[in-house]
Structures are given as structure tokens and as C-alpha cells.
Design goal:
The chain is mostly loops. The radius of gyration is 15 Å and the shape is flat.
Amino acid sequence: MNRKTVSDELSCQKEAFNVPEDVHYLNCAYMSPLPRV
């Protein structure tokens, strides 16, 4: 059985985006749901 890891499937794709150097993008999609307030 050939198992792939996340690093095998996803490589750095920084060149595909035009984000200014002084802007920080935080991808929170992998985090758990937000608690109820």
C-alpha cells in the first residue's frame, strides 16, 4: 500500500499568489470550529 503524506500532495505555491510583503495571510481553515459565544 502506497500512502501519501500531506507534503507529497501539497508543495509550496507561494509564486501563484500576489500578496504584498507587508501583508500576512493566516489560513485558519484547518482549525476546529469556533466556540459558541
